Amino acid sequence: MEFITLCFSLPVLPFTVLLIVVFLYWTLVIVGALAPDSLHIDVDGDLHADIHADVHADAGHMDVGGSALMGALKFVNVGEVPLMVVASFFIFTLWACTLISNHYLGATLGAFVSIIMLVPNVIVSALVAKVVTTPFKFMFKHINAGIAAPAKIVGNTCIVKTPEVDDTSGQAEMKTDSSPLLLNVRTKPGETLAKGDEALVVAHDPQRDIYTVVKFDLEM
User: Fold this and answer.
1) What is the CATH number of domain 150-215?
2) Tens of pLDDT along 69-99?
3) How far apart are CA 76 and CA 139, in angstroms?
4) pTM for the whole structure
5) Which helix or strand (DSSP H or E) is residue 199 part of?
6) Which of 19, 46, 115, 181 gives a 20 to 30 Å CA spacing to 155?
């Protein structure tokens, strides 16, 4: 009973709720009611688009916050490992660290110390998530090796995921039999595609690993 009370007391409560959400998500995945990629968030693509927009709006300004967040996400292997896998390990570790620190320090030093401990708890959780998910990088790379071959991508269609794609930036998602592939794409000079547009992959630049796309037209 004391354990339940501790789980639903501050500052542990928010992480207990997140842990319950993670548990429900994986339960639905296991029973087949939810696809593993249904909560996929195109964080990397959206952040790239935001930074790109900021640079165009103000050439002297750089979205430092966006760059820092992208760096943090890449540090914990987001992009090479599905976001929900990384988030699950991170949330569980953060919940456990907060629970333990609140139990041993909060009771003697007060709630303020428990809140201060959130900073080292987040750092420890990020390190644990990175270490635990690193083996998954090689697994997912092996799974997608054949699917992601450029020869199998060129000639297929994809959906633009960033606010826009032009000849300088953009990303698009291509559906496969397993997980969707997120591609770095560019249009031909002077052409622009909007988020949600269907595009045809027409070429691949192996040096930059970038695909050239054109707007998909059923009559073409």
Assistant:
1) 2.40.50.140
2) 667 777 887 767 778 888 999 999 999 998 8
3) 16
4) 0.56
5) strand 198-205
6) 46
